């Protein structure tokens, strides 16, 4: 399971941590602060970097806010930065790189949403206090003025950070009305930081959940990805479900909270799903890239979404979910498409959901080598993630059953490893390629070449690799049989 939630902090710990981090980043903040001061402008380190400094978290991406307008900021960075970019100019942001540091400097802002608009209208502000007041949460509404390093905390962010709680600088209703995506951000920050969310914020999220529908699918998707990949995703997901936001952005998740039948013959699918996600996170070190791995985590979250649609009560009181893997894969692809995920991510997660039950046909190891080859062939480049999902999907409290399933899957992986070494399963191909097929059969490109290719692939999966002459003989026999 993920690590326990972090304990509250002492204010002295927060102060010590931020002092150490400011000393570490001094080569950037001191020089840049003096540069802006000399030009008659204010500059302050702001938002996430200040919050993370107080938490003892280090990174080289630094956000600043300034009284300077974008064109003035760009001019001041010339000759100081190694590279400058202005993709965020419309929002008042100029970015640059200085050595290993990534810097973004944004003009004081005052932005609000039109009630029917998906995009903010940006107006430049006049002072730091006004800029901090429009930020999402108190822990992100702190700043360090430069070059003097005075901490500005007008909304009690240091105390909230020490207590690990999320509050808004003003009324949460006003904050969420300005930018409804902040409701998703509350869940995301809870998941990233292990914070609780103030009851007033939860109440506003619940009352205003419907406002999320004016936000573009891409922005919702990006917050969801960050939440799922966070250290404590269960915190964020439960908040989305409890406030009704999940019913609008990921309705398949709350739908898993099925009413249990009177005999309690099936698991609580919602709680089972969250447990599978936690166990998948524990297994991420098995993956080539380690973690966090969005595809593996999201597949764990979606693997049983087909159950509500396929639930059937049998006469003897038992419950079945036949074909929930196939139905769930279709539902997953549809939801991910609506959220504007890439085709690669949609294909990967959809495939894992579709295959997550395949192992249970393995029994006690009765699969032939041909069946093992097909398992690997069907999983393709998702085989390692399929291993993780299949293992994570065992949530039984019966220790003997759990140990038996683990041993059985260990055996399957060992068989895959042996066959892979012998036959290069990951890149399994027929023993003859398309050019050889056309030459042997004396035909040109066309549908029959594809049919011959698939015949040889099935032959390869059934019996393993063949010598060229044996493959040729089998191809000719198949060809002759078709022509009779």
Could you write a compact summary of the structure shown?
The chain folds into 4 domains: about 1-160, 2-Layer Sandwich (Beta Polymerase, domain 2); about 165-250, Hydrophobic Seed Protein (Orthogonal Bundle); about 255-425, Hypothetical protein af1432, CATH 1.10.3210; about 435-484, no CATH class. The protein is about 55% helix and about 10% strand. The protein has helices spanning about 10-25, 25-40, 50-55, 70-75, 130-135, 155-165, 170-180, 180-195, 200-210, 215-230, 235-245, 245-250, 270-285, 295-300, 305-310, 325-340, 345-355, 370-380, 385-390, 400-425, 435-440, 445-465, 470-484, and strands at about 45, 60-65, 85, 95-100, 100-105, 110-115, 120-125, 145, 150, 165, 195, 310-315, 320.
Task: Explain the overall architecture.
The chain folds into four domains: 1-159, Beta Polymerase, domain 2 (2-Layer Sandwich), CATH 3.30.460.10; 164-250, Hydrophobic Seed Protein, CATH 1.10.110.30; 254-427, Hypothetical protein af1432, CATH 1.10.3210; 434-483, no CATH class. Helix content is 53%, strand content 11%. It contains 23 helices and 13 strands. The model is unreliable at 261-266 (pLDDT under 50). The strands form four sheets. It has a seven-stranded mixed beta sheet. A two-stranded antiparallel sheet has the order 6-7. The chain starts with 10 loop residues before the first helix and ends with a helix. With 484 residues, the protein is α+β, with helices and mostly antiparallel strands. Helix 7 (172-178) crosses helix 9 (199-208), helix 13 (269-283) crosses helix 19 and helix 18 (369-379) packs across helix 20 (399-423).
